[in-house]
Design goal:
Layout: H1 2-23, H2 39-43, E1 49-51, E2 57-59, H3 69-73
Antiparallel strand pairs: 1-2
The chain binds iron/sulfur cluster (2 copies).
């Protein structure tokens, strides 16, 4: 009985964090794939992307609203 309760609690925790991640995805840029074309910077409605010191695009997670527009336009499929 006690073991079943522990399993249920663990399952609840996994479901909670799984749903949180699904409903609030965080997009990141694979700098090894990015060719610095700037398409994502142009299309981002939140002005959340800029070039980092290495010349590759970087997403400011505090500005990103997870709209996904940068993902659809990236020619290198570098944003996930
Ligand atoms: S659109 Fe893709 S390849 Fe172009 S700068 Fe953005 S992440 Fe890099
Ligand atoms: S998901 Fe939308 S808001 Fe976030 S960086 Fe991409 S284009 Fe900008």
């Amino acid at each position: 009985m006690k073991r079943r309760l522990i399993y249920l609690i663990l399952l609840g925790i996994l479901l909670y964090f799984g749903c949180e991640k699904l409903s609030n995805p965080e997009y990141n840029i694979d700098t090894s794939a990015c060719n610095s074309c700037g398409e994502c910077i142009q299309i981002c409605p939140m002005d959340a992307i800029e070039f980092g010191p290495d010349g590759k695009a970087v997403i400011d997670q505090t500005k990103c609203n997870q709209c996904g527009k940068c993902i659809t336009i990236c020619p290198k499929d570098a944003i996930h």
